[in-house]
Amino acid sequence: MPAGWWLRKRHYFLYIVREFTALPMALWLLWLLFDIKSAGAGAAGFQPPRSTGFVVLSAVCLGFAMYHSYTFLKLAGVIIHLKVLDKPVPPRFIVLTMFSLWAVASIVIGAVLIGFGR
Amino acid sequence: MNAETTRHRVALPHLFWWFMFANGGGLAALVLPVHILVQGILGPLGIVPVVDQHYDTWVNVLGNPIVKLYVLALIALSFFHFAHRLRYLLVDFGVHAAKSVPAQVVFYGGAVAVTVITIWVLLTTAPISLG
Q1: Which of the residues A53, B15, B21, B79 could staple to B111 if both were Cys, CB 3.0 to 4.6 A apart?
Q2: Domain membership flag for residue B130
Q3: Smallest Cβ distance to B41: which of A16, A42, A55?
Q4: Which residues of B10-35 are buried (b: 16+ CB within 10 A; e: fewer)?
Q5: What CA–CA distance (Å, rounded) separates B114 from B41?
Q6: CB contacts, 8 Å: B72 with chain A
Q7: How many folded domains does chain B comprise?
Q8: Could you tell me the CATH number of the domain that includes residue B33?
């Protein structure tokens, strides 16, 4: 395959972006692990994450993470095949359920992260 | 050894990697954006209070065994997903060596290493507490 094949069509480019989302998400999760580890330094050595650089990194990672969520959950309609009362569940309903789950999970986890803060 | 046994030996590792890949991708899709938004942007900017902005609240939450299991699942499963995607990204870019066994050892071994480090961090950072 020639170099730069993925730049020839928008569809190819978006496919590569979808696959690439793994890298920024991995970087952010490694940071989360570092953030957890920093709690082991004790109250005196703890540095809360507040730098501008970190906020910018997170904003970039958020864009990729949202794209991963959108593409992955949308695929559920193609991958998951369910039958209820011997009738196939429409793919659109499965996708809608996955996006609803995303909304509920976001609200619950957001509430925990904020609710236990001060 | 009959044909059926052979088929099972081939299929089970494949099933395992696909299970890790699919569940890692699904879990990351459902929960990672809100973590990044709240812990990476809203908290550091001071827009909302967030658990990891203060030592006491962060240690209290991290001491909860359910939180430890959740963080372990999130990081471990996600990294198996990332390993698979990044390996195939290299294949898509023409790096055929990424299909080789050593490359598989590097990528999936990396996911195993991150999982082990995560377990170590979770067990040594905040004591388990149900309070």
Answers
A1: B79
A2: no
A3: A55
A4: eeeeeeeeeebbbebbbbbbbbbbbb
A5: 24
A6: none
A7: 1
A8: 1.20.1300.10
ipTM: 0.94
| Predicted pLDDT at B13 | 76
Is A55 in the B-facing interface, judged by CB distances under 8 Å?
Answer: yes
Q: pLDDT band at B10, cuts 50/70/90? A: low
Residue B27: give the domain boundaries: 3-125
Domain hosting A60: range is 5-115
Picking from B52, B68, B129 by the largest number of A CB atoms within 10 A of its own CB, the best residue to mutate is: B52
Residue B60 to residue A116, Cβ atoms within 8 A = yes
Query: In this complex, is the C-beta atom of A103 within 8 Å of any C-beta atom belonging to chain B?
Result: no
In a domain, B40, yes or no: yes
CB of A31 within 8 A of CB of A24? no
Is B88 inside any structural domain? yes
Indicate the range of A20-24, B8-12, B41-45, B91-95 predicted with least confidence. Answer: B8-12
DSSP secondary structure string for all residues of B63-102: T-HHHHHHHHHHHHHHHHHHHHHHHHHHHHTT-GGGGSHH
Provide the shortest C-alpha distance from residue A113 to chain B (in Å): 6
Confirm or reject contact between A101 and chain B (CB < 8 A): yes
User: Is A52:B121 a contact under the CB 8 Å cutoff?
Assistant: no
Here the CATH number for the domain that contains residue A32 is 1.20.1300.10
pTM, entire model: 0.91
Domain count, chain A: 1
